[in-house]
């Protein structure tokens, strides 16, 4: 129950449905301020030797990371860690920390943080690109040293929570989110982020209620405060009043009734009133998600985001390890399809152990297929693992971020090489495995006919397609209002892609977040989508909607949307239709 009176409401962007109540835990930067305490003369040597040990441990860690980078990417990329190693040996920094501990008698972690931050801030303020970059190196390394000094790592802190709480943070990376312990994290709220950031997608996949874009919330709350988080409407109530708790109690009841009602649809097909069968699949991030795919009644997997096999670990997964993960999902869901997407690293999903060079625009940078076509060995191992898994189920494969024909043909050539290798080694695989391309860059839409001639299907990644077409960063909460899935340009791009696929005799799906928005599903189907793939927990609602919809109605909506000049009007009409068809699933407002 709330400890204090005086309800306050913070509003943000709702990204993962559900209501949770509990104590707040403030996580991240603001908690990183290290408290100072005095040490005695006798404690001095032990305190200094702790720094010594932390430096040695950090050195080992960096050398190990460097070794892995060298193996995976070559000596050039590995050399960025030389600068990190130099920081560890910087006598001025170490001397100054030890002087501060001697003269001021403060704890070593505090002294180290003070001195290193002063150095980094000085470097960052100098108008010189080289020195500014050194300040980033400096902060990277000193954060690592501090964690070693304090015997903790930030992400493990979140995965080792002792009591259930609502996590509030300035930001959470997708990799930190993937490590959240669902039993302990009742919900989370961040200051930055947007609906299609991978952190938000991960929250939906884990079914953790979440809000992003809660401006300046961290400084206004404290760990231990009592709050209620409404992930349906994007409200965080600090010290919720009796009235608020009562209203939410009722909302939770209504939602439970709706969810229970939808359970009967689990084994029913996603078929429209006038008999069109839609393949309704699920997006998964990890092999364990297979249970949820079955539980929520999805027809296999329409997007397996394999990146999560690569992050939150110290080494790259081997071909064998990947094969085991892919085959586990394929075998568990056979004969249903499992569409494995090749590695889409970059953007907001980075390898913790192989830090790639910093980029000005990571979403426009060295990511996905661009990374794979250069890091051929990493790519080759993944392709072999996917092909091998195809012997044990109904596996399909697709490449992310295809921007031109060359990328598709190069990737297909590499697959051909892998097939030959496996054949020569006598290793089984499905010779007729379907290989497709994701359509998520406007250039791919413009050349969709050429791509369709070399692919067995398209899967439209609307999350990226929207950000690239409208030039709206999908991560930026400040411009989230401009990220408009029903912008007329998007409606036309979707139509062009679907028409090109059908003209060339291939099927087309949608695996971006649009496919999980009940308001937008009739539009997608009316435009011609054959398959939809969304987070497992959204499948029951979407199936319910499809079963109440007629294709005639969906087509009429799409035809009208193609003539409409206002994204807002299109969204409103889409929502009105969905509300009319399935009013129960809009039972989310208190
Ligand atoms: C997309 O861009 O819509 C997509 C499904 O890929 P991701 O969200 O992983 O970038
Ligand atoms: Mg994408």
Key features?
eight-stranded mixed β-sheet, Glucose Oxidase, domain 1, 2 domains, 590 residues, TIM Barrel, binds phosphoenolpyruvate, binds magnesium ion
Low-confidence stretches: none
CATH class of the largest domain: Alpha Beta
User: What name is given to the CATH topology of the largest domain?
Assistant: TIM Barrel
**Total DSSP E strands:** 16
Shape: globular
Radius of gyration: 26 Å
As a percent range, the share of helical residues equals: 40-55%
Cα(first) to Cα(last) distance is 19 Å
SSE diagram, text form:
Elements: E1 8-11, E2 13-16, E3 19-27, H1 44-73, H2 75-78, H3 80-88, H4 91-104, H5 108-125, H6 129-150, H7 154-159, E4 165-169, H8 174-178, E5 185-190, H9 198-206, E6 210-212, E7 226-230, E8 235-238, H10 242-262, E9 279-284, H11 290-295, E10 301-305, H12 319-333, E11 337-341, H13 368-374, H14 376-389, E12 394-399, H15 405-425, E13 434-439, H16 442-446, H17 448-452, E14 457-460, H18 462-470, H19 488-503, E15 507-510, H20 521-527, E16 531-534, H21 539-548, H22 551-561, H23 567-581
Parallel strand pairs: 3-4, 4-5, 5-6, 9-10, 9-16, 10-11, 11-12, 12-13, 13-14, 14-15, 15-16
Antiparallel strand pairs: 1-8, 2-6, 3-7, 7-8
This protein binds phosphoenolpyruvate and magnesium ion.
């Amino acid at each position: 129950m709330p400890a204090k009176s005086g309800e306050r409401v913070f509003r943000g962007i709702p990204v993962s449905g559900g209501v949770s109540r509990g104590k707040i835990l403030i996580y991240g930067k603001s908690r990183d301020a290290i408290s100072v305490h005095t040490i005695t003369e006798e404690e001095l040597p032990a305190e200094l030797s702790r720094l010594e040990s932390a430096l040695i441990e950090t050195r080992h860690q960096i050398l190990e990371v460097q070794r892995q980078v060298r193996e995976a990417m070559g000596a050039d990329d590995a050399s960025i860690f030389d600068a990190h190693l130099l920081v560890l040996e910087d006598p001025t920094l170490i001397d100054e920390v030890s002087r501060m501990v001697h003269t001021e008698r403060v704890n070593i972690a505090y002294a180290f943080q003070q001195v290193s931050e002063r150095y980094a801030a000085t470097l960052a303020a100098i108008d010189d690109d080289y020195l500014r970059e050194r300040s980033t190196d400096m902060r990277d390394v000193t954060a690592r040293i501090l964690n070693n000094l304090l015997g903790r790592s930030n992400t493990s802190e979140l995965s080792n929570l002792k009591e259930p709480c609502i996590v509030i943070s300035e930001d959470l990376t997708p990799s930190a989110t993937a490590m959240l312990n669902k039993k302990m994290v009742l919900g989370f709220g961040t200051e930055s982020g947007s609906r299609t950031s991978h952190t938000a997608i991960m929250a939906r996949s884990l079914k953790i209620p979440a809000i992003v874009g809660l401006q300046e919330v961290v400084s206004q709350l404290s760990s231990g405060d009592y709050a209620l988080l409404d992930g349906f409407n994007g409200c965080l109530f600090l010290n919720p009043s009796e009235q608020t708790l009562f209203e939410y109690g009722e909302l939770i009841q209504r939602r439970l009734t709706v969810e229970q009602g939808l359970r009967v649809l689990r084994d029913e097909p996603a078929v429209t009133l006038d008999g069109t069968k839609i393949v309704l699949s699920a997006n998964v991030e990890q092999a364990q998600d297979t249970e949820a795919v079955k539980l929520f009644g999805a027809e296999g997997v329409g997007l397996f985001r394999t990146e999560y096999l690569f992050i939150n670990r110290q080494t790259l997964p081997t071909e064998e390890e990947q094969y085991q993960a892919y085959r586990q999902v394929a075998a568990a869901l056979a004969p249903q399809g499992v569409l494995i997407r090749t590695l889409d690293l970059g953007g907001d999903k980075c390898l913790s152990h192989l830090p790639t060079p910093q980029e000005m625009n990571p979403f426009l940078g060295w990511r996905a297929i661009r990374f794979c076509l250069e890091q051929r060995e990493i790519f080759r191992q993944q392709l072999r693992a996917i092909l091998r898994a195809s012997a044990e189920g109904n596996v399909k494969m697709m490449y992310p971020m295809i921007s031109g024909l060359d990328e598709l043909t190069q990737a297909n050539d590499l697959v051909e090489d892998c097939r030959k290798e496996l054949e020569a080694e006598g290793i089984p695989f499905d010779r007729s495995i379907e290989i497709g391309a994701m359509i998520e860059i406007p250039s791919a839409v413009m050349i969709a006919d050429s791509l369709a001639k070399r692919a067995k299907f398209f899967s439209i990644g609307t999350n990226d397609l929207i950000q690239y077409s409208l030039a709206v960063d999908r991560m930026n909460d400040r411009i989230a209002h401009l990220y408009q899935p029903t912008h007329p340009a998007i409606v036309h791009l979707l139509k062009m892609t679907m028409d090109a696929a059908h003209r060339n005799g291939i099927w087309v799906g949608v695996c971006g977040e649009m496919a999980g928005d009940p308001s937008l599903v009739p539009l997608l189907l009316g435009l011609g989508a054959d398959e939809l793939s969304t987070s497992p927990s959204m499948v029951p609602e979407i199936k319910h909607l499809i079963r109440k919809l007629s294709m005639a109605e969906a087509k009429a909506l799409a035809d009208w949307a193609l003539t409409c000049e206002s994204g807002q009007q299109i969204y409103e009409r889409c929502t009105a239709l969905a509300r009319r068809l399935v009013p129960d699933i809009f039972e989310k407002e208190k």
